[in-house]
Amino acid sequence: MKLQQLSLFLENRPGRLGAPLEAIAKEGINILTLSLADTAQFGILRLIVREWDKAKQVLEDAGWVVNLTEVVAVDVLDRPGGLAEALAVLEGAGLNIEYMYAFSLRRGDKAILIFRFEDPDRAIDVLLEKGLHVVDGDELLSVVSG
Amino acid sequence: MLTELWNDAAGGFHPASAPDFLPETALKQVQLRRLRAVVSLAYENVALFRTRMEERGLTPDSIQRLEDIQQLPFTVKADLRDTYPFGLFATPMSDVVRLHASSGTTGKPIVVAYTREDVDVWSEVMARTLACCGLHRGDVLQNAFGYGLFTGGLGAHYGAEALGATVVPISGGNSDRQIMLIRDFGVSALCCTPSYFTYLIERAAELGVDLRALPLRAGIFGAEPWTDGMRDHIEAAAGIKAYDIYGLSEIIGPGVASECSAQQGLHIFEDHFYPEIIDPETGEALPDGEEGELVLTTLSKKAMPMIRYRTRDITSLISEPCECGRTIRRMRRIGRRSDDMFIIRGVNVFPSQVEAALLAVEGTLPHYQIILTRDQGLDQMSVEVEVTPEVFSDKIRALEDVRARLAKAIEHILGIRVGLRLVEPRSIARSEGKAKRVIDRRNEGA
Amino acid sequence: MAAQIHEAHRQTEHRIWDPDAETLPREDIEALQLERLRELVTRVARVPFYRDHFAHREIGPHSIRSLADVRRLPLTTKDDLRRQHPFGFLAVPRKALARIHGSSGTTGRPTFVAYTARDLETWSNLCARFLVAGGLRPEHTAQVAFGYGLFTGGFGLHYGIERVGAAIIPAAAGNTRRQIEIMRDLDPEVLICTPSYALTIADSARELGIDPRSLPIRFGHFGGEPWTEDMRREIEDQLDIAAFNNYGLSEIIGPGVSGECPERTGMHIQEDHFLVECLDPETLEPVPEGEPGELVITTLTREAMPLIRYRTRDIARLYREPCACGRRTTRMSRVTGRTDDMLIIRGLNVFPSQIEEALLRVEGTTPHYLIEVSRPGTLDEVHVKVEIRPEIFSDRMDRMQTLCERISREINTVAGIRAHVDLVEPRSIERFVGKAKRVLDRRDLGE
Asked: Pick from A37, A39, A65: which is nearest to C388 by CB?
C-alpha cells in the first residue's frame, strides 16, 4: 500500500526546476503530484509519477541524483477539519511524520495527503486500524487521472 | 636563594607563593597598609568614590583598622556601566597598558584597565594560582581559555609565563586538535571550563586516546560553576587532579582564589584582594563561616581600584588552617548567585542583555525564553522567540532574515554564538507574575 | 589626504627603537651575520636532521668563511618539519621552552614552533622595532584585532606593543560591530590586523552610519596575508590613516621578520637575526638583485628551533641599496605569490589538501569538489562545492542541512576556517584529465 516517491536534488537557481520535469514529460510520464522544499542554496523536488521506475531511469540517465522513498497516501474528506482529524489519529498513535504535503482532487470531495513516516508499515497498520483510507498506487492513479 | 632552590627542585616551592604562607599578623599589616593606600588613591582620583565617601563624612584617614573597611561604600556592577568607559580609572591613560572588556548587564560593555604594575600583580597571582594547583617550571600548560577581551586566556597565559612553564596558547575550540596536542606535547596541565573538559574526555575516548595514560596530571578549571560530582568524574576518567579557580574581570580576572592540593575550598590571595561576606539583603557584614555575598576590595590595583565590589556570588569564608600550610583564608566553591546572571562558556550573561537586543530589532519586546543546554561539553544558549504578526512572512527567506537579525543582535551584545528559534505565538509557557526567562538544562542527563 | 597624513607622520614620528642594531653600517651587519652563522652551525648540531647532513658532507663552522658559504648548507622545508613532528627540530631541552605555537601544515596536523624565554624576548623586540618605525609611542593605545591562539598572529604584536609601553586592547578577531564600538569608546590611535579586516571595519562602520574616517585610529600595522598598493590606498583613504606593512611566518618566528619604515619603500629585514636569500625556486640559484624569487631564511639567533635555509615558498624581491630612513638593512618587497598551493584565508594559512582531508572524513563527498575563494566585499570567503551523490542525498531537508553543517565542521576542525558548503548537482564541477584543479581563486592579489 506504500507509494514510491522520487526525490531529486536541485540547485536553487533559475531554470533548475523545469529541466527534470521536461525530461520525464518527454517520455510521456505523467506527474500525479509533487512538492518542493527549498533553502536559499538548494532544493529537494519530490515527485509521485505513474511509472516511477521508468522515470527514475530517465532522470538518472540525464545525470540527476534520484532517491526512492516509500510514502503513504491517505484520502480525507475535503472539508474543514478533514486534515486535522487525520493528524489527530497519527499524533495519538505517536507516529512521527518526517514531512507531508497534500492536494485536493479536481472532482469529488476528497483531498489526498502524502506522508513520509519514519516507519511506514507501522503507520499503515495504525491508519487502517483507525478506519482511515490508505490509498494505494493504482487507486491514486485512477482518482487523479480519473 | 629561594629562587635557586625552586629552580633546582622541580615541584618545589615557587618564590611567588611566599605571601600564601604569611603569618596572620604580618598578613593583616600588609592588608591594612595596602587598604589605606588604595582608599587614598581612589579618593583622590575617582570622582564617584570620593563623592560617596564625602556623603558618609569619610576621608582616607577614617581607615585606621582593617575593620574600618565596613564603613566604606559598596561598588556595584552598574557603577562600571554608569561611569563607562573611563570614570573609575585612578591613573591617567598614559599609565594604562591593557584594557579588557566584558558585557555589562544591558547592551553596554564594561571596561577594566591595568597599569604595568597591575599586569605584574595579575601575572603573580596567576602564577600563585598555578603553583597552588601543583604546577612548576618545566610543566607544559595547554591554555584552552579563550584569548581576547575575556580575561581568562591572557590571565592564565601570563601566569604560566611568570611561573616558568611552557605555554601552549591554543585558546578555545577545535577539540580534536586539543587532544592531539595533549598527546604530542606531553602536556602536563590544561586550563579550560570544566564542562569543556568533560567533552574532551568523551572525544578522546572516541579517538582512542586514553588520557589516563598520558602525562596530563592537573586540570585548572574555572569561569563557570561546577560540582564535586563533576570533579569526581573528571578525575577518574582523565587520571588527573581537577582544581577550581575563581576570579572576575572587575577585580582582576582569574587569579583571585584557587584550590590547593587539599581541594577543600579556594585560597583567596588576600594580600591583594580583601574578602568580606555580607548579607545580600541588608549589606551587613557576616562572620567567617556564614554564607552570604562575597565582597572584594582590590588592595593593590592602580588603574582601576575596586572598593568593596559586590560580586553577587554566594559563598562563605573558611578561616581554619588548611592542610597545605597556606595561611590565607579560603572560600567555599560558588554555588549560586544573588542575581539572575548565568555563565555560558565562561561569558557572563544577563537576561536583560538579551531583552535589549530583541527590543532593538523588533521595536517591541516579544515573548522569549532562553534555553541553556550542553552539547559536546560546550554550553549552548538558544533563544526562542515567539513570531509576532509584524515579523511573520510566507517567504522562508524573510523569516530566515528575521531570525538571523535577532541572532546577530544578541551575538553582538554577548560576543558569543547563540541559537535562535522562531516559535509559534503563545507557545512559550506564561506563568503568574514573573515569566521564567531562563531554562537551564545543562546538567540534565549528564 | 592619506598622503598628507603619511607625510606628517614621516616628518614628526619617525624614531628608531633599537638604533644600535637597526642603523649598523653594512659591513658591520655582515660581520655580525657571519659570526652568528658560524655559531649557528655549531648550535644546530644538536638537531639530528642537521647533524646527519653535516656529518655526511663534513660541514662545520670551518665551512663558513663568508656569508656566501651559507649555500653549502642544506635547505629545510615544511615537509622536513612535519616529518620530525613534534620536537625533532628542537635545539634545546624541552624544559627550556617557554611557548609552543603551531603553523598550519599541509594536512590536519600542524607543524610546531617552539620558543625559549629568550626567543620571546627577541620576538617582542623585533616587533617593537617595526611598530616604532611606524609611529607607535608609549602613550598610544593599540587595538589588536588579530586572533590569539596556536597560530602566531596576535601574540608577536601584542608583546611588541607591551615592550614599547603602549596600552593594548586585545580585541582578537571577529564581532566587528563590537570592535567599532570599543574603538569609539576607548580611543585607540593604532589598529593591528589583517589588511582585509581593516576594510571590513570601514564597511561595517558605514553600515552603522558611522563615518570610518571619524574613527580615532591614526595608523595601522597590517600583515598576515598578501595585499597590494591599491589596497593600501583604499585603507588609508577609507579610514584616513597611514597603513604599514610587515612580514613574518610562524616557522621563522612569526611577525617581525621585516617591516616598513616611514619611507615605505619595502620592508626592512631584521638582518641581525635573519639571513635572507632570494632564490629561483626551480634552480635554487640566487636571482639577481631586484628580481622576484623565493625567500629562503636562516634564523641566526633562534634558540629553541633554529632553522637553516628555510624555504618560505613566498615570492618577493630584495633591495640592498641604503634607505633614506637611515637603516642599512636589506629591504624586501611585498610578497607577490607562492611557489606552492597554499592559500591565505583571512590571515590563516590553508592548504587545499587540508580541505580534502576534511571531506574524506565525510563519506561520499569526494572526489568531485571544488574550493572557490573570493573576496566579495573586503573579507575572504571560501565556498566548497560538493557534488551530490546518491550516498549522501536524502529526500529529507533536515538531513541535507545536517550534512552541510557536518562538512563545514570538519573543514573547521582540520583547516580552522569557516567555509560555506554548497551542494551542487552531479557533473556540474568541471572534470580534468590528469591532476584535477581543486582551487578557483577569484581574488585579485597581484602586485
From this structure: A65
- Is A64 touching C (CB cutoff 8 A)? yes
C-alpha torsion angle, residues C410, C413, C416, C418 (rounded to 10) = 40
Cα-based angle C353, C356, C361 (whole degrees, multiple of 5): 135
- Tell if the CB–CB gap between C168 and B167 is shorter than 8 Å: no
**Terminal CA-to-CA distance of chain B, rounded, Å?**
49
Query: Which pLDDT value is given to residue C290?
Result: 95
Q: Which residues of B touch C95 (CB under 8 A)?
A: 137-138
| CB proximity A42 to C under 8 Å | yes
> Mean pLDDT lowest for which of B232-246, B290-304, C149-163?
C149-163
Q: Does A12 touch chain B if contact means CB atoms closer than 8 Å?
A: no
Nearest CA in chain A to C392: A65
CA atoms within 13 A on the CB side of C141: 24
Residue with cell 570610518: C212
Architecture of domain C345-441: 2-Layer Sandwich (3.30)
**Domains contained in chain A, CATH given:** 3-69 (3.30.2130.10), 72-135 (3.30.2130.10)
Residues of chain C with C-beta less than 8 angstroms from the C-beta of B407? none
State phi, psi for B222 to the nearest 5 degrees.
-165, -165
Class of domain C2-340: alpha beta
pLDDT of B432 higher than 60: no
The pLDDT-based confidence of A81 (bands split at 50, 70, 90) is confident
- Domains C2-340 and C345-441 agree in fold: no
The answer, for A84 touching chain B at a CB cutoff of 8 Å, is no
pLDDT band at A77; cut points 50, 70, 90:
confident
State yes or no: ipTM above 0.90: no
Q: Grid coordinates standing for B61?
A: 584617614
Nearest Cβ partner for C170 among B138, B148, B175: B148
Task: Find, among C73, C105, C82, the residue nearest to C342 by Cα.
Answer: C105
Nearest CA-CA partner of B311 in B346, B344, B336, B282: B336
A38 touches chain B (CB under 8 A): yes
Domain boundaries along the sequence of chain C: 2-340, 345-441
Contact B185 C165 (CB under 8 A): no
Three-class SS state of C268: strand
Distance from CA of A94 to the nearest CA of C (A): 20
Q: Which helix (H) or strand (E) holds B33?
A: helix B24-45
> With bands split at pLDDT 50, 70 and 90, how would you rate the model's confidence at B7?
very low
Query: Can you tell me the distance from the alpha carbon of C375 to that of C361, in angstroms, rounded to the nearest whole number?
Result: 28
pLDDT at residue B397, as a whole number:
66
Q: B-chain residues within 8 Å CB-CB of A38?
A: 396
CA distances in angstroms from B445 to A16, B242, B375, C212, C249, listed in the order given? 46, 22, 11, 50, 46
Whole-model pTM? 0.82
Instruction: Look at strands C331-332 and C318-319 and give their pairing.
Output: antiparallel
Average confidence score pLDDT of chain C? 90
Q: CB contact, 8 Å: A5 with chain C?
A: yes
Q: Are B209 and B179 in contact (CB under 8 A)?
A: yes
pLDDT for C259 equals 96
**What parts of chain C have a pLDDT lower than 50?**
447
Q: Which domains does chain B possess?
A: 2-339 (3.40.50.12780), 344-440 (3.30.300.30)
Whole-number Å distance between alpha carbons of C446 and C227: 8
What pLDDT is stored for residue B228 in this prediction? 87
CA distances from C13 to B93, C133, C134, C135, C233 (A): 20, 8, 8, 5, 20
DSSP symbols for C426-437: TT-SPP-SSS--
Instruction: Mutate one of A4, A42, A59 to test the C interface: name it (highest C CB count within 10 A).
Output: A42
